[in-house]
Amino acid sequence: MEEIQSEEIKIVDPELEMLRLNRQSGYNYRRRRQADWLENYTLYRDRVTINRLTQRQTVNIPLMKQSVRTLLKDVDDMPVIYFENLDNDRQAEIFQNEHWRITTEENHMELQDIVDKRQVFLFGRTFDQWQIVDGKIKMTVQDPQDMLVSRHCDPFDLNSSRFLIHTHIFVPLSTLKNNPDYDQAEVKKLEKFYGTLQGILKKKDNVDMMVEKNEKMQEMGVPDVADPVLGETYVELSLQFLYREDEKDKDDKKLEEQLFLYVEADDQVILMKKPLEEILGVTEDNYWRNHYPYVSWGDDVERQDFWSDGIGDIIRGPNKVVNSWYSQLVENRTLRNYGMHYFDSSDETFMPQTFAPVPWGWYPVPGKPSDVLQKVDIPDLSESLDEMQFVIQISEKASGATATQQGVQTERKITLGEVELALNEAKERVKGMSKFYTPAWKQRSEIFLKLIEGRPDLLDAVKIYKKGRNTRDIFSREIDPKDWMTKLGYRTRVWSQDEKNAQDTETLNKLNAVKSVMPDNPKLAEVYNRKLLEFVDLSPEEINDIMEFEEQKREMMAANPLLGAGQPSPQGQPAQSAQPTQPLSIQPQG
Question: Which of 20, 366, 386, 393 is least buried, going by the fewest C-beta atoms within 10 A?
């Protein structure tokens, strides 16, 4: 009976075979990076693999971690993102940006941003996934080892890949019944399949993927990663996004290709197949027909290869060399400390191995000690310290993680100006990464807007709290997508903190020069004032409030010139607008 059930589930499905071939192709394209990623990761986690020749001691110079953390401190600022309403609806604009702020806090995006950049350093590539879960937009940084793309993918555009596969998603078998989107007949096939086996059995053509995925945790000391002790059966799901033609066209007209989502379980059954647009909703520009809900980027992108190099690939070689020399130095010091000797074995009664070393001990030897014993010569290897320092300096120059950036004082006597110049040059080199991750955040903000536009019905209302203008009171209000969605929608402004700080001073200096020539130009004054407010790191919302107040004051002074001459108000206070400013139009509930 067991054999019959197993044969039933092994019937070849053409679509299932297509998914399997796509997965195998994507894996073959990426697998060459596996060994490098493993070494980069274990060196970063201070783990080494010992061998009988070059790495006999379990010692590691933390060059990988030192370099990555040094570089990370100069690029770990998450860009500022602000959504501008194209219908000039300021109230909707406030609500939209409040929803983004709440989303970033709930997803711990600032922390995920650091993890995201660290993965680029170690692996050369990183991915993050966007979806709507339990009424909220969820963003999750994914392990690049779980992602597969087509070998013909444009390295600059993830959406150009013919398929995108997200593997290694483990869920309890019992939970598949609770998902109404899954084909329950296929779920029953899985239950029959696992009913003939004990625990989790992997009958795959690409078991190597799972072995390599588990290898990292095995190196970290997790003993049962390949066969965990679980109380229930777990199934591995794969999300496969690929371009297909929609076969449901009622007019029998050939539609253009669009993205479909297949949910495949353990290479055995297809639980779901739907157009991505049907899942994430229809937008005005049909965004989900040709865009994945994923973002990927790297900081060393090149034309031919999607799986680009990272900083870890630069550091790995020197780190292994330094570890080898350091291991030999440790062993050399140990052997020199213990000492090794030759002895004359012709006298069978002489057994120096039985001598116990004690302070001021005396040991009998059969004859002149220098004739009977000879110390094994173990040369001092301390000169290798200079060579190790040389290798470390090479890796610092190649990666940009210089000793100056690490706060280490150099022995060579140089001026303070030279130190500052070297430090600034090193930081500018690292900040060049912003040219890659700032567009990635632009894509993320676009996906965020399209998820709201496509499926507002899946989003729960959120409560926001704002302090009113000219008051200390805090007001609250519940908002949902209908409160901020408008006809023309939004455009996104992304400020890279690195670029902003580098350009602000120069821009203000130039504006100062222009303003001295045109001191009475109101538009120039408005631009200048806005740049000043951005320079002191005020939020876009705060800047808009201040500029709005300045505009009200200018109009009031134009209507009443006496106020411009410093005329006090009747109460002896600075002149105020005739109408009190409302607290952001957010009224208290109840």
Answer: 386
Asked if residue 339 and residue 327 are part of one domain, the reply reads: yes
Same domain, 95 and 142: no
What values do phi and psi take at 269, rounded to 5?
-140, 160
Tell whether 589 is covered by a domain.
Answer: no
Q: Taking the CB of residue 212, how many other CB atoms lie within 10 A of it?
A: 16
Residues 485, 523 within the same domain? no
Please tell me whether residues 525 and 473 are part of one structural domain: no
Domain shared by 455 and 525, yes or no: no
Pairing of strands 80-85, 126-133: unpaired
Q: Indicate if 117 and 144 belong to the same structural domain.
A: yes
Distance CA 412, CA 409 (A): 9
Q: Residues with Cβ < 8 Å from 449, sequence gap 6 or more?
A: 83, 489, 490, 492
Q: Look at residue 580 and tell me if it is in a domain.
A: no
d(CA 467, CA 445): 26
Q: Do 166 and 87 fall within a single domain?
A: no
Residues 112 and 78: their CA atoms lie apart, in Å, by 10
Flag whether 571 is in a domain. no
Query: Could you report the per-residue pLDDT of 262-280, keeping only the tens digit for each?
Result: 999 988 899 999 999 999 9
CB atoms within 10 A of CB 252: 5
> pTM of the predicted model, to two decimals?
0.75
Rounded to whole angstroms, the Cα distance separating 25 from 121 reads: 26
As for how many domains the chain has, the answer is: 3
Last residue of a domain, one of 465, 495, 525: 495
Q: Which of 480, 495, 510 is the last residue of a domain?
A: 495
Q: What is the DSSP string of 439-476?
A: HHHHHHHHHHHHHHHH-GGGPPPEEEEEEPTTS--EEE
CA dihedral 455, 155, 265, 172 (to 10 degrees): -70
The overall average pLDDT reported for the chain is: 80
Contact between 255 and 249 under an 8 Å Cβ cutoff? The reply is yes
- CB atoms under 10 Å from CB of 209, counted, come to 23
Helix, strand or coil, per DSSP, at residue 223: coil
Name the residue with tokens 């290898």.
Answer: 215
Angle at which helix 522-535 crosses helix 540-559, to 10 degrees, equals: 150
Residues 136 and 180 in one domain: yes
Which residue(s) pair with 476 in the sheet? 465
13 secondary structure, DSSP code: P
In whole angstroms, give the CA distance from residue 96 to residue 103: 11
**Is 587 a domain residue?**
no
- Residue 481 half-sphere exposure, CB side, CA atoms within 13 Å? 18
**Which residues, other chains included, contact 263 with Cβ-Cβ below 8 Å and sequence gap of 6+?**
182, 237, 238, 239, 240, 270, 271, 272, 273
Q: Express each pLDDT in 153-203 by its tens digit.
A: 999 999 999 999 999 998 888 889 888 899 999 988 888 877 655 444 544
Angle formed by the axes of helices 540-559 and 90-106, nearest 10°: 160
